[in-house]
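The following record pairs a protein chain with its ligand, zinc ion.
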Amino acid sequence: MQGSHAPQEPIVGPVLGIESSCDDTAAAVLAGDGRVLAEAVHSQAAHAAFGGVVPEIAARAHLAYLPGLVADVMAKAGLGFRDLGGIAASSGPGLIGGLIVGSGFAKGAAMANGVPYIAINHLEAHALTARLPELAVDATFPYLLLLISGGHCQCIAVEGVGRHVRLGGTIDDAAGEAFDKVAKLLGLGWPGGPALEKLAAEGSPTAFAFPRPLFGRAGCDFSFSGLKTAVANVVAGFPAGALPRQVAADIAASFQAAVASVIADRAAHAMADFAERHSAAKLLVVAGGVAANGAIRAGLLAACAKAGFRFAAPPLKYCTDNAVMVAWAGLERLRFGLVDGMNVAPRPRWPLAELSA
Ligand code: KG4
Ligand code: ZN
């Protein structure tokens, strides 16, 4: 059922949101008008020792931390479960163990308290975040989303709740994955993006001429594996052992420059494709942890200025995985009566094209 209410109208009760699709356990409560009443997150550090997220460790940690986080946010919001208009949880795509923990918890609490359950597509949650009232971005539909995280890299035309069109995406690694892999080659810790950006500040972006995969190509697909291999080949050309710091910094800066110029180029193509579909709408929203990168942001800003698009980057805590975005997506769905049955199973793969609207 589609309602005719404006998005800001407080027509539903508060919503509890739960995020557990990767390595962040998070819970948040939003009032019916979208105000954030409480939020809490536990980022799992245990994976650093393994150089990446270990699904089984992640699932067990979600199980250990989620009940406490939910109790905290409900207490801070001053609400009981029966006061809620809905309980929303990331139901995919993501690591299945964590999805089972989060959606199972949400369903149990919903069923026990007679509250609707809302199964959230994690990508849609990222996509709708720009509409969160406190961000004060004019993000009326449609707009263009560039999602660049450790697990995802895609351009999406966000046309409405449950209505998203994937314009392009990576054909191999995600952007954050490329940062993490190159950081590993340079002997930096995990996650590698922030450490690599810091090291790059000491290096020259023109020291190494790394390839810029798909640069200038029609459409807005991405590819990073060739770039990663090029870096690996350069590193292999030096004697075994730790690279001299200046060499590592030059590699980091040159790699980052290649990624930034590829992402700006792909975004420019995405804006052109989007403008063909929606000539009047001109907003690019960026989300995902990689959006924290200064060189990438600068490249995107320049591309937006050239294309005549506004540029919106939610604060980092809403760019990376969080539960506020899940609760907000729940609220947006609840306003249209889009709730789910207890038989809706979490999905490790859940393309946006398969969303209900
Ligand atoms: O959105 P996010 O927190 O988690 C998911 O992947 O869902 O993104 C994490 C990714 C990691 O790959 C991390 O290395 C990358 O974002 N990242 C960065 C920066 N900060 C985080 N990449 C480049 N530069 C950064 N400053
Ligand atoms: Zn995410």
